[in-house]
Amino acid sequence: MKTEHAEDADPLDDVALVTAAQHDRAAFGPLYERYVDLIYRFVYHQVGNHVDAEDVTTQAFRQARATLADCDPTRTSFGAWLVAIARDLIAQRRGDEAGMLDEGPCDLVSLATQPADANDLVTALRQLSLDQQRVIVLKFSRGRTTEEIGEALNRSEDDIRQLIHRALIALRTALESK
Fold first, then answer.
1. What is the pTM of this model?
2. Structural domains in the chain?
């Protein structure tokens, strides 16, 4: 069976698919398949890297599924509704990330034994995705728990654990390449 993508979608089909998904969570799959590429491309164009684009796309679909009852496909297209969700998530990230590494002395930097180590650490941190920077700073500099970070970033604890793990691997790789 060929998956129909957003560019080929009939708006009347969207009304039927959204209505079905509002009554049966398992019926959300065809909507995801139809719009995932469109949303990913939109998000990637906005954030400029694959890691953040994947994270925002995932969050957008989770939020869409959780709030699907609020969607009225007869008034606005499902694709436009999804783009609005993704746009809001991107805006939240941009607001949250402003100055995050420049808020004053970072305890992570104070752990460095030499000034050169501190510079290398800051350089390595800035190579991480914005979400990775946030979780590293929140976890290790501000001492926040995984649960607190999840609440602050509106993500599940499992998402945060995975993000911390990926961030630490990326940070180690960046530091080892120095």
1. 0.53
2. 6-97 (1.10.1740.10), 100-176 (1.10.10.10)
